[in-house]
Specification:
By secondary structure, this protein is α+β, with helices and mostly antiparallel strands. It has one domain: Alpha-D-Glucose-1,6-Bisphosphate, Chain A, domain 4 (2-Layer Sandwich). It has 5 helices and 10 strands. Strands 1, 2, 3, 4, 5, 6, 7, 8, 9 and 10 form a 10-stranded mixed sheet that branches. The longest helix is centred in the last third of the chain and has 22 residues. The N and C termini lie far apart (49 Å).
């Protein structure tokens, strides 16, 4: 039952990772939800995977029923490889949590675009869909990192039959090269899947989903398709 509730609640965030890994950490996450209920506006660490170099946090903010998330990861890949993966919109569904469809809607420029994402839910609950506006701030020697800023724009297109529109999917992803083969990835934000779902269930899954998505990302960046490609990119990652 908990597994089903988890999929229902999230339906938005944030892949290929086995659901068993959620269940394995479920008890710890539920306990954290109980113990940090009074710790508003304070980041609480949820996961620290030293082997995979992934750490995640959650924060309950004043005026919001759903917790914000934060994740940090040291990725065994260079900046170009990570850019290729994130710009490959059609294949987001291969690694991002419960994504069943992803496609480009509009390319504004080589550093701005809109894309559509659909999240899987059980038969008794409508799938979630989201329209995301992305702005890319390319890496420069002076800046020292690349940033992608993502914001949900629910009214960009009409509601789709049988789907509930995600109301907020607002976060950033920061990529900082450590050396020629390693990159620090940092992401922080807030997601509201819309519709009527218990807030505690959404919070529980949002605390698990960033970690699961990062596991999917770590597998994808090892593929030659991303590591060895010389094809031109649709969007700029470096100036």
């Amino acid at each position: 039952m908990l597994k089903k509730l988890s999929v229902i609640a999230f339906a938005v965030c944030t892949a290929l990772a086995p659901v068993a890994s959620i269940a394995a950490s479920g008890n710890d996450d539920v306990e954290e939800l109980r113990t940090d209920s009074k710790r508003a506006n304070e980041w609480v660490q949820i996961k620290k995977d030293k082997l995979k170099n992934i750490s995640t946090w959650a924060k309950r903010e004043d005026g919001k029923s759903i917790r914000s998330f934060k994740v940090e990861m040291i990725v065994d890949a260079d900046l170009e490889t990570l850019a290729r993966l994130h710009f490959d919109i059609e294949n987001i569904k291969r690694w991002f949590w419960e994504t069943k469809e992803s496609r480009l809607l509009k390319k504004v420029s080589d550093r701005e675009y809109y894309f559509y994402q659909v999240f899987n839910a059980p038969l008794t609950v409508p799938d979630r869909d989201s329209i995301i506006h992305v702005v890319v701030e390319p890496f420069t020697a002076k800046r020292g990192y690349m940033v992608m800023k993502l914001n949900a724009v629910p009214d960009f297109m009409p509601p789709q039959p049988g789907k509930t529109r995600v109301q907020a999917q607002d976060y950033y992803i920061k990529f900082t090269p450590i050396d020629k083969n390693t990159t620090r990835l940092e992401s922080e934000g807030y997601i509201d899947p819309g519709g009527i779902i218990p807030a505690w269930t959404i919070n529980f899954v949002q605390r698990s989903a960033p970690y699961i998505s990062m596991l999917g990302l770590s597998r994808m960046v090892q593929l030659p398709y991303y590591r060895e490609s010389k094809d031109p990119l649709d969007f700029v990652y470096m100036e």
